Amino acid sequence: MAPALGLLLGLLLGLLAEPGGATKVHSLHYLTVAVSEPSPGVPQYMSIGFVDGIPFTRYDSERGRVEPLTQWMKDGAEPGYWDGQTQISVRNQHLDARNLEIARERYNQSRGLHTVLWAYGCDLLSDGSVRGSRRDGYDGRDFISFDLGSGKFLAADSAAEITRRRWEQEEEAERLKNYLKHKCPEWLRKYVGYGQKELERKEPPDVHVSGKEEYGTLILSCHAYGFYPNTITVSWMKENATLDQEMEWGGIVPNSDGTFHTWARIEALPEEWEQYRCKVDHPGMLEPGLFAWEPTSGRNLTMAVAVSVIAAILILTVLIGFGVWKLQSGRRDRSGYNVAAGKDVGMNGSTAGITA
């Protein structure tokens, strides 16, 4: 479970990361996973929507219907919304099932576990601009991506280059740009309106610093719990120098209560422990805070507080499938995935998954 958790959180971190310059105000992202061989707890197809990092809608092939995951979405959605979104998701489910068959046939792969994943969405930034992207993968690795800033597709290998050329011939970039720049922000503003009281609240983090000495090295950990929104900066400092390059960051993890937690870890010389401070900055704090390790029972002090909450069951369901997907990828043919784009419309108007 632990490796799978890290892999999924890494992907979510990539989706929710802050850009340089303008900061993110609100975000709307979707994560879609299709597997060729479903198993108990891992449906054949699943799509989850996130507003500001919080899961708010879900569709999976076992339930067969798009459903709300927050009360504000359940109360705010207009009549006909759920039926319309379900039709889109069912269509995308069939497309991705065909995608898996095409990929396996073209690479002469045996039957077994194969996966298609695509993630897309947009961010509203503090300067009024919009940032958007889409990423597609097959069997645990990048296949093709699109960034609204460049307006171009980036192929991961020669096989993906075939898809890139076909998408450009079919003017897929223009359709995707229109979705990411206009339709996605429109939907995002509507969703934020539904849950404004919940989504625009500010809850500061509860910060705990711990230390543990292993084989002559002191490992300092800084944990921030229960904060909202998910915009946060956690960094380690030695005296007045910020040590971002030396630091390991755990990403921003959603909690089951709608808040988030994160951590940052660094290695230090045991005799220099007093020189280190953890700096935390969050919109719910009046000013950035500096937090030091205060050993109370020797250098082998265990973590002051265990992880405060467990991520939602929904998130765990997806990460199991995603983790299996990534673990299987090491045994796959790395030559690529020669598929082309379809023109079906995906969740809330985005382009659907890759198909021939």
From TrEMBL:
It is a single-pass type I membrane protein. The chain crosses the membrane at residues 301-325. Keywords: Disulfide bond, Glycoprotein, Immunity, Membrane, MHC I, Signal, Transmembrane, Transmembrane helix. Residues 1-22 form the signal peptide. It is found in: Membrane. Pfam families: C1-set (PF07654), MHC_I (PF00129). GO terms for cellular component: external side of plasma membrane; extracellular space; MHC class I protein complex. The lineage of its organism: Eukaryota, Metazoa, Chordata, Craniata, Vertebrata. Belongs to the MHC class I family. Residues 205-282 form the Ig-like domain. GO terms for biological process: antigen processing and presentation of peptide antigen via MHC class I; immune response. It comes from Taeniopygia guttata (Zebra finch). The gene is LOC100231469. SUPFAM superfamilies: Immunoglobulin, MHC antigen-recognition domain. This is Class I histocompatibility antigen, F10 alpha chain-like.
